[in-house]
Amino acid sequence: MAPIALAFAVLDLTGSKTDLGLVLTANWVPQLLLVLFGGVFADRLPRNLVMVGSNLLSGVAQGTIALLILTHHAEFWQLIVLQVFRGISMAFFFPASQGLIPETVRPSLLQQANALLGMTKNGANILGAGLGGVLVATAGPGWALAFDGATYVASAAVLAFMRLQRARRLETPSVLHELAEGWSEFASRTWLWVVVAAAAVGNTVWMGASFVLGPLVAKLYLGGAASWGLIMAAQGAGLLAGGLLLLRYRPQRLLFVGMGAFSVAALPIAFLASVRSTPVIAAGYFVAGVSLEIFSITWAMALQQYIPLEKLSRVSAYDALGSIVFVPLGLSLAGPVADAIGLTEALWLAAALGTASTLAALCVRDVRDLRRRDEAPIVAEPMLEAVP
User: Is 169 contained in some domain?
Assistant: First the structure.
């Protein structure tokens, strides 16, 4: 519910697509600044407890926004400040969540685990997007955001009961030393940084087009929040279908399949630019959902199978940082670019840039040839340094 509710809360409050971009940017900037430190702490501490703290912070932030909206005291600057806190929580949540799966699942079942995790999340997204659109249209965005805040608290309660066996670390280097270790692991693998570079472009144009310009298209031409909720639900259905597909299909060349699927993710952006029909745009988002989930699962598999477990959260943090580094720019500029060159032209530009970035990554041999391996995950032996 949250993306739909927040988008229309800002549009109802200020009526400005540029303001919407700034509120969304406020969520992403703290992730850029803190995600590397989130990776370090996730590799040091029990990952589920890092996620508990992150969820509680997100719940407080979303609940406060809901309260301000429902009591008619919301101001633009308050939404920005509270989204900053939500961004801080995400900076610690994401690296911890990426490292959690190999700690709980046998190597031979990693793909099914990633698929089931995605299906659970995406099933909730289908229900949440459809219900969110209806709830925003009938009761207003405040109630949708209040429900979202409550789900963060419930999620924290579930995660708190997990019991993980963690390898004992015989030494705890400095934070900078651990960041350097993570960077060395990241930079040494061509397939890794090439895909992250492509994702940096793709995510930037996707977020700007879908989360700033998309709601505007819905408001101007498609009837508003209910139509946008249906479109987002169709994307969720596509994500769910992609997970179902990968419960059975076991691609051998992980990134060739993943990036090949990712290359069609710009389809709904092209539909937003050219078609003023909710069913057609929803169909485009369904196809994009399938392709994005295929990429997401194959990418997670590549990281989990090739990156040592004790470095996985740090490498995932560098992955996250590289993938979202320009997202605030995309969110902030989507509105002004649309004002400058036109809404339709801005959407076509976003679709072209996203497609070009993924096709360029597929031109790299290391990306095309990376193959799955289902043996035990890589775990480095802890070492004691000699004392002079």
Answer: no
CA distance 38 to 60: 19
pLDDT, tens digit, 9 for 90 and up, residues 189-226? 999 999 999 999 988 888 888 888 888 888 888 888 77
Residue 167 falls inside a structural domain: no
Number of domains in the chain: 1
Q: What is the DSSP string of 139-183?
A: T-HHHHHHHHHHHHHHHHHHHHT-----PPPS----HHHHHHHHH
Tell me how far apart the alpha carbons of residues 6 and 21 are, in angstroms, rounded to a whole number: 11
> Residue 371 in 3-state DSSP?
strand
Could you tell me if 204 and 329 are in contact, meaning their C-beta atoms sit under 8 angstroms apart? yes
Give the pLDDT confidence of 307-351 residue by residue, as tens digits. Answer: 888 888 888 888 888 887 787 788 788 888 988 998 899 999 999
| Nearest alpha carbon to residue 8 among 28, 31, 25, 24 | 24
- Quote the CA–CA distance of 148 and 90 in Å, as a whole number: 15
As to burial, measured by CB atoms within 10 angstroms (0-12 exposed, 13-18 middle, 19+ buried), residue 80 is: middle
Distance, in Å, from the CA atom of 360 to the CA atom of 383, rounded to the nearest integer, reads 40
d(CA 119, CA 346): 32
Secondary element (H or E) of residue 218: none
Sequence-distant (6+) residues with CB within 8 A of 109 are none
pLDDT in tens, 90-127: 889 988 887 888 888 888 788 888 888 888 887 777 77
pLDDT for 31 beyond 70: yes
The whole domain housing 204 covers: 2-161+178-369
Which domain CATH number covers 112? 1.20.1250.20
350 by Cβ neighbours in 10 Å (0-12 / 13-18 / 19+) ranks as buried
In a domain, 326, yes or no: yes
Query: Could you tell me if residue 379 is inside a domain?
Result: no
Sequential DSSP letters for 42-57: HHHS-HHHHHHHHHHH
**371 beta partners:** 253
Mean pLDDT for the chain overall: 84
Cβ atoms 4, 133 nearer than 8 A: yes
Task: Give the SS3 label for residue 275.
Answer: coil
